[in-house]
């Protein structure tokens, strides 16, 4: 078995779903290959971290704000499961209207992204393109806005891709990718930047040798970094371990894409 073959079968390997001969071949390869043993360890850890995540999470402040709005409007509609309480469409529309024009040009980028995360979590159809097909989404971003985006696969860790949309932040087109982990939304933003004008702030964190900024904003956790061509921002109620794993995965995916 080659490294490439092992990488392609790491998930069925972990799930114990490989045929016996393939399993034996994988074990034999692992015994002699430090890289693949490392890959396996990371996958296993990633799953472990995600298993520990709470099934449902929303900040108390945000919950209170929403509850207050709901009291004024009691009509029920179908909601994304991330919502902690059923809300009326009118309320959601209002909320989006209130939150989205927060395009104060001076607002820090991450604050803008968190506002989007909060706003879009409240509307019934947050995605423009509903798809769990990574290739389809990547093509869509490319065709719609010329954005070269790598859409990582988090499904083995139980985080499902649900779609994407184009958004505006810092007066430019931004790729917004939606994932959900049970009742929790994970937003992944890719913001093209020119040069080092990223202005990222937060607590510097080193994870697997890479630098990130971690920051709590409005009750959510954010992890951000830049590679000089884009700023990447993850926003969720998932904990930092999970966000850093997801960030690392996106980085690897992008590096892989750039090699091709
Ligand atoms: Zn190998």
Please describe what this structure looks like.
This protein is of the alpha+beta class and 260 residues long. The protein has two domains: 3-51, no CATH class; 60-259, Phosphorylase Kinase, domain 1. Helices cover 43% and strands 22% of the residues. The protein contains eight helices and eight strands; from the N terminus they run H-H-H-H-H-H-E-H-E-E-E-E-E-E-E-H. It has helices at 3-14, 20-32, 34-51, 60-72, 89-99, 109-120, 134-145, 240-259; strands spanning 129-130, 160-169, 172-181, 184-192, 203-207, 210-217, 220-226, 230-236. Strands 1-2-3-4-8-7-6-5 form an eight-stranded antiparallel beta sheet, with helices on both faces. Strand 3 and strand 4 (184-192) form a beta hairpin. Helix 1 (3-14) runs parallel beside helix 3, helix 2 crosses helix 3 (34-51) and helix 5 (89-99) runs antiparallel to helix 6. The longest helix has 20 residues, at 240-259. The chain starts with a helix and ends with a helix. The protein binds zinc ion (ZN).
Large-scale geometry: globular
Return Rg in Å. Answer: 19 Å
* SS element count, helices: 8
Low confidence ranges: 72-79, 100-106
* Assembly state (oligomeric): single chain
CATH topology type of the largest domain: Phosphorylase Kinase, domain 1
- The CATH class name of the largest domain reads Alpha Beta
Bound small molecules, deduplicated: zinc ion
Nearest-integer average pLDDT: 81
- The tally of structural domains comes to 2
Distance between the termini: 22 Å
Tell me what the CATH architecture of the largest domain is.
2-Layer Sandwich
CATH superfamily of the largest domain: MucB/RseB, C-terminal domain
Strand order of the largest sheet: 1-2-3-4-8-7-6-5
Q: Structural class, please?
A: alpha+beta
Strand content: 15-25%
